[in-house]
Amino acid sequence: MVGLAGAAGTALAQQPPGAASASAATPASGNLPPAVPEWTGKPGAPTGGKLYGVPSLYEKDVVRHLRSTDKQYFSSSTRTPLQELDGIITPNGLFYERHHGGVPEIDPAQHRLMVHGLVERPLVFTMEALRRFPSESHIYFLECSGNPSYTAYGKTAAEANGLVSCAEWTGVPLKTVLEEAGLKKDAKWIIAEGADAAAMNRSIPIEKCLDDAMLVYSQNGERLRPEQGYPVRLLLPGYEGNMSIKWLRRLHVVAEPAYTREETSKYTDLMPDGKARKFSFYMEAKSIITAPSGMQRLPGPGFCEIRGIAWSGHGKITRVDVSVDNGQTWQEARLQDPVLTRAITRFRLPWRWDGSPAVIMSRATDETGYVQPALEDLLAVRGPNYFYHNNAMTPWRIAESGEVTNARL
Ligand SMILES: Nc1nc2c(c(=O)[nH]1)N[C@H]1C(S)=C(S)[C@@H](COP(=O)(O)O)O[C@H]1N2
Ligand SMILES: [Mo]
């Protein structure tokens, strides 16, 4: 009770739900106070038993979510278990994956990045050569623009919105490499292409390439994981994930976009007037409550900190509002520092659940003044064919039993 006594005496008039009290201790376990737990009574596992560390075996269920309907795994995705994470950084092993042709195993010694087209000096870089350039590190989110499609609302936060993650990326500003090659006057777009079996390619406007685009080789301090594009990927902060080409092998500098499959047939939005929205690039402001969230259970009425994440492709999150009455009234949540440009921002709101059914949701605002829409408002503008770029709010229903479910299901 040491830790709880302080809390109970200050802000919390009541013990947090789920906290163990001395009287509620499980009598079957000999590891609880006042006994000395068995792990204190003997030396632990030897140091160096695991030269690459892994989480506690009690956390074995904290894994990426693979949809059971995904029967093949070459063009597939896995989702970050948002509901299990704290802070703003996604651990590398839990970073979401989206692959169109599987994960290639690339020998970095045999990998090359080619820069050609409308440049003064066509260049081919080894990984060693790329790493000699002045480097930078930045924390940015990455989100798939299919996160989620309107038809695919999931039970958990991962299933509903887990195609978003956030990491500290290290690499070379793309601008530096382009300056080395020397852009010709007509250089307006760059077609980036991957070395995977999908040879995925996208046209990137030159303004973005000369702004904050990065050639990334490290993620959260270690080399990129194969799933994230080892040994080098493009990272376009705030843009839809699809454009951040992994396993990057080619940058073709051109005057016009290529209108590739991924920017015409896919990742475009068919609007009610029959025209398709294309080259929308930026992911708009979004947020989701990760706790309490779908498939979790409130142990009983009382104090409950509502926690979640917010992000915007257009810059910083300036505000997150939370409703606990299905959108009728809103309270401003507290944003956790650091609040970074194009990174995930953590928000929290202290709440006291009175035990009656409730629908909770969050609404993000970014530095452009843009406010995250409700699904109904988004659909009113974008129509029934709309599929990608869904940044609507996610409402969670809390039943009297404390059970939390997706209010849309
Ligand atoms: N070469 C290549 N790059 C790619 C892809 C791919 O299949 N091949 N998938 C894209 C898509 S759709 C997304 S959302 C992001 C996913 O990046 P991640 O797997 O590191 O999360 O990579 C993009 N870059
Ligand atoms: Mo994607």
UniProtKB/TrEMBL annotation:
Entry-linked SUPFAM superfamilies: E set domains, Oxidoreductase molybdopterin-binding domain
A biological-process GO annotation: sulfur compound metabolic process
Composition bias type Low complexity, residue spans: 1-30
Region of interest called Disordered, as start-end residue ranges on this chain: 1-47
Residue ranges occupied by any Moybdenum cofactor oxidoreductase dimerisation domain in the UniProt entry: 282-392
Organism of this sequence: Bordetella flabilis
Coiled coil (residue ranges): none
Protein name as annotated: Sulfite dehydrogenase
Entry keyword set: Metal-binding, Molybdenum, Oxidoreductase
Residue ranges constituting the Oxidoreductase molybdopterin-binding domain according to the UniProt record: 100-258
Pfam families: Mo-co_dimer, Oxidored_molyb
GO MF annotation: an example: molybdopterin cofactor binding
Essential cofactor(s): Mo-molybdopterin
